[in-house]
Specification:
Elements lengths: L2 H14 L12 H11 L10 H6 L2 H5 L45 H11 L4 E8 L6 E7 L4 E10 L5 H6 L12 E6 L5 E8 L9 E8 L4 E8 L18 H9 L4 H5 L19 H12 L3 E7 L2 E10 L4 E9 L15 E3 L5 E8 L8 E8 L5 E7 L17 H8 L8
Helix pairs in contact: 1-2
């Protein structure tokens, strides 16, 4: 998929793949945006308003900060592509290279020829490509006699030691993401590779499968190949049970050194900014785990946002069906939430803390999923919002009638004085 199309897709997935604790990631937009754009990680947190926070990452992506293409969720929001010249190349000052643009040492025709050579037989139709003068990319419909399938491959350069490269080659948490298989490994030459078998849409509204291989080498070469079990990524009926290339064949495709001439023609990616040191104080994850333990709630998995200490989630299971709970604890939210914490459904406690409790259907399309939320805002602007679902994955059907935690338990978690230590 072309870079500008990838950006449009990824920003759309913010709305399609997130649930409501939205404001917490505004300050972490670049990091979270990288995860979404590069890997379609759209399963842990978010919601329609969180997408607004990600819009701010568009400049970072188009400026080359967020790394390559690829995906493992879905959705669609249109964002204007970068201006181009009459030749179709990104617009820029004369004599200056746009990120991802080389001298053209490898042409579009050569990209197609290499693609044909490296695929295991079969026929290619509708091939489209760009050479190394314009973010090298190739795509086509591949037919091995068992059903036509879309296949694409993109080349780019990344900081091999950066967060983006690491996240591109890591598997997501299967307890909250829907995929069939994922392997992340380091190769003998130091390269890292991700081999992922997932779906075009996280809610599996159609049966289109998306299988990917992403390679990042010590030199910063990134090769990203995707294949589908349909002749188009979207809008085409499934033509076969699975995409045509096996995991081994995908791996061979992206690890071939025949892509190196095009990759060497691209400018090296700038070194990523050093990540901010993680907060030295307590983090949301341990606090949530502590509160659940006091309630005697069984936790089967948990996670957070890495360097961001104010978000955590847990998947619970009492033997009657899995249930996810997530929490955001955010300072200085009074102005952001102006108007949200008002109205007949909001109560004010004696200490001035405002509490809003809601029960409504889930947003991601899973059948029978409900979403319960207790949102609290303290007089000093500190917000704690806790949400629970009657499933561990909102894209899938409900696994129980209601969330495992009651509204009273959610309120107890949100109002706990332990959050004051953040």
């Amino acid at each position: 998929m072309p870079l500008e199309d990838e950006l449009r897709e990824a920003l759309g997935r913010a709305g399609d793949g997130f649930t409501p604790d939205r404001q917490a990631l505004t300050d972490a937009g670049e990091r979270r945006g990288r995860q979404l754009v590069a890997r379609r990680r759209a399963a842990v947190i978010g919601g329609s308003v969180l997408a607004l926070a990600l819009i701010g990452t568009a400049s970072a992506y188009t400026g080359g900060l967020l790394g390559g293409s690829g995906s493992d969720g879905s959705g669609s929001v249109n964002v204007a592509a970068p201006p181009t010249t009459s030749s179709g190349r990104p617009e820029g000052s004369a004599g200056l290279k746009t990120p991802g643009v080389g001298t053209g040492a490898v042409s579009a025709a050569q990209m197609i020829a290499l693609f044909k050579e490296l695929l295991p037989g079969g026929q290619l139709t509708g091939a489209e490509a760009r050479g190394s003068d314009d973010s090298p990319y190739v795509s086509a419909v591949y037919d091995d006699g068992a059903g036509k399938a879309a296949i694409s491959l993109a080349l780019s350069r990344v900081d091999p030691n950066g967060t983006g490269a690491r996240e591109l080659t890591q598997c997501g948490d299967k307890s909250v993401q829907d995929y069939d298989d994922c392997l992340s490994e380091q190769l003998p030459d130091g390269s890292r590779i991700l081999l992922h078998k997932g779906y075009e849409y996280p809610d599996r509204r159609v049966d289109t499968k998306l299988w990917r291989a992403v390679l990042v080498t010590p030199q910063g070469f990134q090769v990203d190949a995707s294949e589908w079990n349909a002749p188009a990524e979207k809008g085409a009926a499934v033509s076969r049970p699975n995409p045509p290339l096996s995991t081994a064949q995908l791996k061979a495709l992206v690890t071939s050194e025949k892509w190196h001439p095009a990759l060497k023609d691209l400018p090296a990616a700038p070194q990523e900014r050093a990540p901010q040191a993680p907060p030295s104080g307590p983090e949301a994850g341990p606090i949530l785990q502590s509160l659940l333990a006091k309630m005697g709630i069984p936790v089967v998995s948990q996670g957070d946002q890495g360097a961001q200490s104010d978000y955590a989630y847990a998947v619970l299971d009492d033997g009657k069906g899995k249930s996810m709970v997530q929490v955001n604890a955010q300072p200085n939210m009074a102005k952001v939430l102006a108007g949200h914490m008002e109205g007949p459904d909001v109560t004010t406690l004696p200490d001035g803390t405002k509490v809003k409790m809601e029960q409504k259907p889930g947003e991601k399309g899973g059948a029978g999923v409900v979403w319960w939320t207790v949102d609290t805002l303290r007089p000093d602007g500190f917000r704690v919002v806790v949400s629970a679902f009657n499933t561990s994955d909102q894209n899938k059907p409900a696994t129980r009638k209601t969330p495992l935690l009651t509204m009273d338990q959610l309120k107890e978690i949100a109002l706990s004085p332990q959050w004051n230590t953040l």
